[in-house]
Amino acid sequence: MENGVIAIRFVDSESEIAECLRLRREVFMEEQGVSEELEIDGLDKDCVHVLATINEQPVAAGRIQYLEDTAKIQRVCVSKTCRGEGLGAQIIQFILTEVSADPSISKVRLGAQTHALSFYQKLGFSPVGTEYLDADIPHQDMEIDLRDSA
């Protein structure tokens, strides 16, 4: 990632969303063994997609589903070759900055794989509810109350 130009942006073209799906397939389906029917859940058309590139090469993605006053961050993934460089945190910060500007959004929520709880806590998220299995992977819901941090 050194000397690379990082760009993180919302995308809506079919080709850019296809890149997001390719990254999700690589990380969730190929690496983590999530089935296609669970990963490709039919909600992509209702979500806002985020794509991160380095030197214009897609390397990370995520999506946001808006549910009333909550922005739910989902499907955040970073290509194996770019992990450990802070790109996941940059995507989350980008999303938080963008959704915080919307006065109709009071909470940001996500379902974190439990191995990543400390990562999300460092970004300001707090655990809510109890641990659960999603695609046979332990998860914990986490959220930020934007009204508390305003």
TrEMBL record:
GO terms for molecular function: acyltransferase activity, transferring groups other than amino-acyl groups. Residues 6-147 form the N-acetyltransferase domain. The keyword Secreted does not apply. Keywords: Acyltransferase, Transferase. Coiled coil: none annotated. Pfam families: Acetyltransf_10. Gene3D superfamilies: 3.40.630.30. CDD domains: NAT_SF. This is GNAT family N-acetyltransferase.
